[in-house]
Specification:
The protein is mainly beta and 275 residues long. It contains four helices and 16 strands. It folds into two domains: 90 residues, Sandwich (Immunoglobulin-like); 106 residues, Beta Barrel (Lipocalin), CATH 2.40.128.
Length: 275
């Protein structure tokens, strides 16, 4: 019985032939094959890209005369009007470039600037947005634009007494307790003029007296109430409210922007006549 492997350290005749073949072939293969050759192939120089024909290049853009564009001008429009006129704004209709359709620019203050206008002779018309307001000079006004300069033109907007029936002083009837506690003492009122201008006035024990101006526009009439829209100048024209006239009192609801700025919906009742 064998107690150890046969022929330890010595190959049998049957295994000697394969061993001899491997001993001959492996050195020959190892000199020309490297497994890393498949991972890092040798650099191959790419042929240079063909240059496009000379005639295929896009032509250069033509330069303007003298190498620069003619300078444009600016028009400054000054407007005199009431809070009612400015609350809903106005439109400057400019007939520039000799075109039939005007260029409309909206304004909401005493000065409106219109830049980048072509030099030359043009005309301007002003149109008020409030129904009871209009420019004193409703026809086209000539204006000359000079390149690189600011030209000026002025208009006046007048508003009729279309809101005389609601004109007066309306005092707030009640407050939330936290508001009074915050201000110390507080009173609040609307002062409305016959042309639709108004001021929302506050007297605060903490901040003193201040006001927010604006203008009315009529939404609807009929039945027991008249409905108005209130447009404020403050906060870039984003503040507005609706007001319902019921007898001698205005019931006011503010929009989301004003409500989030701590304006409270409420009732304001007439305590005096307006102008």
């Amino acid at each position: 019985m064998r107690t150890h492997p046969p022929f330890p350290g010595v190959l049998s005749r049957a295994g000697a032939i394969p061993f001899l073949l491997l001993s001959v072939l492996l050195p020959a293969c190892s000199s020309s094959w490297n497994p890393l050759d498949l991972v890092n192939p040798p650099d191959v120089e790419q042929p240079p890209a063909a240059e496009p024909p000379v005639g295929s290049q896009p032509p250069d853009e033509p330069e303007p005369p003298d190498g620069e564009l003619a300078p444009t001008g600016t028009l400054e429009v000054s407007v005199v009007g009431s809070d009612a006129a400015f609350s809903l704004g106005y439109f400057v209709l400019g007939y520039f470039d000799g075109v039939q359709s005007p260029r409309a620019v909206r304004g909401t203050g005493a000065i409106t600037r219109i830049p980048n206008l072509p030099p030359g002779s043009h005309s301007v018309v002003l149109r008020a947005s409030a129904r009871n307001c209009a420019a004193d000079d409703s026809g086209p006004r000539p204006v000359s634009i000079v390149g690189g300069e600011t030209s000026q033109i002025g208009f006046t907007i007048s508003c009729s007494a279309a809101f005389g029936f609601v004109a007066g002083v309306y005092e707030r009837t009640s407050y939330y307790a936290p508001s009074v506690e915050f201000h110390g003492t507080l009173s609040e009122r609307y002062v409305i003029d016959a042309d639709g201008s108004f001021r929302l006035q506050f007297d605060s024990g903490r901040y003193g007296s201040f006001a927010y101006p604006g203008g009315l526009s009529l939404i609807s009439t009929g039945g027991s109430e008249t409905l108005f829209s209130l447009s404020f100048f403050a906060n870039n024209g984003q503040w507005s409210a609706t007001a319902s006239l019921r007898g001698n009192c205005l019931v006011v609801e503010y929009n989301t922007d004003m409500w989030l700025s701590d304006f409270e919906h409420g009732e304001y009742c007439r305590v005096g006549e307006g102008s």
